[in-house]
Here is the input.
Amino acid sequence: MPRLTSSNRHVSVRSRGEHRPVPVSRFDRRLNKILDHATEVFCHKGYEGASMRDLSRASGMSLAGLYHYFRSKERLLYLIQKHTFSRIVEELKARLDGVIDPEQRLRIFVLNHLEYFMSNQSGLKVLAHEDEALKNGFSSEIAAIKREYYRICLGLMDDLRRKRRLKFNSRTAVMSLFGMINWIYTWYNPRADGGAQELADQMTDIILHGVSGDSSCGADTPVGARTKRRAAGRRKILARGISRG
Here is the structure.
């Protein structure tokens, strides 16, 4: 998933394998550059430890100008969260469009999430650590976007459960999945863990085989063969998660 910065002329939106360029205004490019700088400040200093003067210096905007456009650092945090979650949801919907198979749809969800956050690890840290920092009405809008994202994932898990006639708690499976994909910034090493596609495949395999059981994936089937090839990789991820827990 592409990162929108001041150098981007367009945002690429994928739908059914195609890329449609969406024009980005000069204001949007400037705004996203400021949000990028604010994200880095919040990441390194924490929301409470960061000041508007810190944000001003990092963004290159005067302190008066920053207050004029954003009024407070809370509004900047709100915009960071809103832009991040809205972009992830929009991209996810485009990629799910036309895909029917429930397992493939779940794999798309995981890949979409990991692709974004692997290229925006500072943003992921800010979202995870400053989850409850927003007050004064800002939190309700962000919570609504988060609920939509959660409901999409819950729907994907429910579809998989019904169509495969499996028995598991969809909420537990979804929250377990979020626990895996939301904390990768604490341990992810591209040299050891591979790229987004490889890691998404392994994480989704862990979820799928945990809820369906390996007995349904014989070694003579494509899924079973893939399971066998990736077993070592899955054990490595689980061991790393346990050691860091």
